[in-house]
Amino acid sequence: MIHHRGNIIGVRSHQNGDIASLCRDDGGEICGDLFIDCSGSHSRLIGQHFSIPLVSCADQLFNDRAITVQVPYSYEGDPIASHTIGTAQSAGWIWDIGLPTRKGVGHVYSSAHISDESALRELRIYLAKSLSEQKFSELSFRKLKFCPGYRARFWHRNCVAVGMAAGFVEPLEASALVLVELAAAMISSDFPGHRVVMDIIARRFNDRFKYRWTSIVDFLKLHYVLSQRNDSQYWREHTQKNTSSERLNEWLRLWAFQPPSKHDFPQIDEVFASASWQYILYGMGFKSKSRPTKLRSHNLSTYKNHLYENKKFVQQCISNLPRNRELIEKIQSYGLQQV
Question: Is residue 298 scored above 70 in pLDDT?
Fold first, then answer.
């Protein structure tokens, strides 16, 4: 394997339209048979060179801006949250991620429903609750813009887009990370042995990832469409049926009478399996009517017993777990134990 460092300033093509090489600013070229576009939101190859359009999902997922900030802990030994904290705002939400030396915090929001200034003000109010005036004054904020959507094709000719070059939607479930892993795995397992089969593999790749992207959009939308919040236009519009896909609307009609099941999600490697949909659905207070054929008194008794045993088991586990900062510091000092 040869690693080249340099800035790409152009693309040279074969007569058939494939990429022949990438031109570097030092006069050199990088030749290849297959090119992976990992150029982020710039999408230098699949977007700029091949002009594969972005399929917008802004009609379903409104957020297109973010303000990020690195936040120091008030004290060196402050607890580290073991999960991401999400807090809804008037036209978006704030993430709060605990790291060993600081927190990563950001406000993702819809520019159609709130101004940048108002979004920053909401973020400042959130941060002021846990920071001293001195630390608060030292913060540096960064504004980001993005177009929620994904490419109409991810593999075109001899180029495959991976990561943000393929698309980006809001970070509600960090789905971009798993898509990178799934893309790398599929490219590796289906790596074309000859150019004559590449278009077949490309169609299969495109079909699979179009399904994954549309499923992710529906899954993220589920978080919003179930909201009971109606104090702003942002939240009211999210619950309108015309801002959800027909598939999601159909599923919600179905799930009113039965829970999500494996039959709704038939792929072997679904990004979000039926259990994930159930967590959001019922965690947000959705109700499914019990089917008479499934409702028996002994089933209800068994369910209650399982629920009780599960709660007891969870409490036992929690009582024996170390605090997150304590665990991280032990790992830093002694490493991970082999299983």
Answer: no
- The encoded tokens of residue 244 equal 């959800």
pLDDT tens column, 208-248: 999 999 999 999 999 999 999 999 999 999 999 999 999 99
CA 115 – CA 91 distance, rounded (Å): 10
Q: How many distinct helices (H) and strands (E) make up the chain?
A: 9, 14
C-alpha 52/C-alpha 264 separation (Å) is 30
Distance CA 13, CA 253 (A): 50
- pLDDT of amino acid 1: 77
Burial string for 190-208 (b: 16+ CB within 10 Å, else e) reads: bebeeeeebeebbeebbeb
Residue 126 vs residues 123, 130, 320: alpha-carbon distances, Å: 5, 8, 32
Spatial CB neighbours of 225, under 8 Å, sequence gap ≥ 6: 238, 239, 243, 244, 248, 252
Is 314 exposed, middle or buried, given 0-12, 13-18 or 19+ CB atoms closer than 10 A?
exposed
- Give the pLDDT confidence of 51-108 residue by residue, as tens digits: 999 999 999 999 999 999 999 998 888 999 999 999 999 999 999 999 999 999 999 9
Give the strand pairing for 149-151 and 167-168: antiparallel
Can you tell me the distance from the alpha carbon of 231 to that of 235, in angstroms, rounded to the nearest whole number?
7
